[in-house]
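Morning, I've got a small favour to ask if you have a moment. Here's the protein in full, and shout if anything looks odd to you:
***
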Amino acid sequence: MLKALDLNQVMVIDIETVPQYPSFQDVPPHFQELWEQKTHYQRNQDQTAEEFYEKAGIMAEFGKIICISMGIFSVQGKSSALRIKSIFGHDEKEMLLQFSALLSKQMPTLMFCAHNGKEFDFPYLCRRLLVNGIEIPVQLQLSGKKPWEINHIDTMELWKFGDYKHFTSLNLLAAILDIPTPKDDINGAQVRQVYYEEKNLDRIVTYCQKDVITTAQVLLKFKGMDIIPAENITIVS
């Protein structure tokens, strides 16, 4: 399937998320109770709901999206290029409206590619679109579809080769496939701190864009193609 895949019909995406509130104390009381219930079996025995709240960003019910980075391939013969665009900000609804408007200009058959996208990025986007009262774009409408009818690409799923117990991080996969990656000054676990404490959204956007570039390079490896040289990667505003 990947050999015949037309990269010009693929959009590589990555999202960055944070808890909806800076701290557990800022969460409305009703949602504090719901958070305690939701995380009861996930917390360590001696860990309070407040201590666990730093992980709220990974749950769409308690988190929000602050950055969506997208990569579009341009392939002509043996020459490949990648253009990166990011939508980011503090107003999640405005961001998602921009994202939806962008997708409305794309072909309905556009395929998304993300690392662990089927378990995180794709469903998270759909849930937050619904919460914000925005119609889910046709490219993300997965409800009622059989697994083989969903043509989105998940590089982590590709690496599993049917082994559903196996988890491999994007950084590890890039390393073993000999894909050069710039040294990141943050990781996913630090995004909340950088957003709420350092108030440095630009730093998070750069991190998100790097993940899109790395995911795109991993996909090329799966297709047996050369990775895209740095000079053929463009970040557009």
Observations:
- Residues 116 and 157 are 7 Å apart (CA to CA).
- The chain has one domain: 7-20+62-236.
